[in-house]
Amino acid sequence: MCICNGGAAVSKLQVLVVDDEWNMRNLLRIYLTREGFEVKEATNGYEALAMAAKHQFDVILLDIMLPDMDGWQVCKKIRENDNVAILMLTARSETKDKVHGLGIGADDYLTKPFEQEELLARVYALIRRSAIAQIAVKQEPVLEFGHLRILPEGREVYIHNTPVEFTLKEFDLFLTFAKNGQRAFSREELVGLIWGSEYEGEIRVVDTHIKNIREKTHRAELGFNPIQTVWGVGYKWNGAGTSK
């Protein structure tokens, strides 16, 4: 994967643009092809899901207001099988909408109208973050806590030998806590580590992701709450599980 900026060729990078408005798709295609991206387009949610299942994209630009199902539903469906970077595009700027989108697996959120420079900066940031995450997990040992196994290299989680599906950000959070034992993290620290310095949204998005992690591990009958709340500080790994 080439992660170049400043007009360098990045022809190997694949982008899916999902929007029912031709003018917006055309504008995004112009912006992205000038940078060397290969762009595919979908006009509705079902078409987007079919293309996401067929192709391996580096980034998906996903509009929320679609004619058949909304972008949130599409994002949630994609996240069931794919950790591709997802940038939500919308004319809605309410904080609760941003938190909801990020909570179900979106990686970033851009409000229309936007400038070409901001769009490209966010796309490149998502690609860099994804590449760094892939490099960081290579050769890392498997972490085991009783019936819980975390495989950093494969980005997999197993409870009672059954796989548990996490979104990209959920896994990154989960692994950060598991690797750092009893260290307590503030929400601000976690946002910086997982979302990056470019993130400008609400820090409460951390709470939403941790709630999702707790619900998934509870449904899988882990037997202990893996992430403990540290009142007045933030969160830390729960010592009820001991790594082998």
Automatic annotation (TrEMBL):
Keywords: DNA-binding, Phosphoprotein, Transcription, Transcription regulation, Two-component regulatory system. Residues 140-239 bind DNA. The keyword Aminoacyl-tRNA synthetase does not apply. One of its GO terms (cellular component) is cytosol. Residues 14-127 form the Response regulatory domain. One of its GO terms (biological process) is regulation of DNA-templated transcription. The modification 4-aspartylphosphate is found at D63. One of its GO terms (molecular function) is phosphorelay response regulator activity. Residues 140-239 form the OmpR/PhoB-type domain. The keyword Transcription regulation applies. SUPFAM superfamilies: C-terminal effector domain of the bipartite response regulators, CheY-like. Gene3D superfamilies: 3.40.50.2300, 6.10.250.690, Winged helix-like DNA-binding domain superfamily/Winged helix DNA-binding domain. This is DNA-binding response regulator. It comes from Paenibacillus oralis.
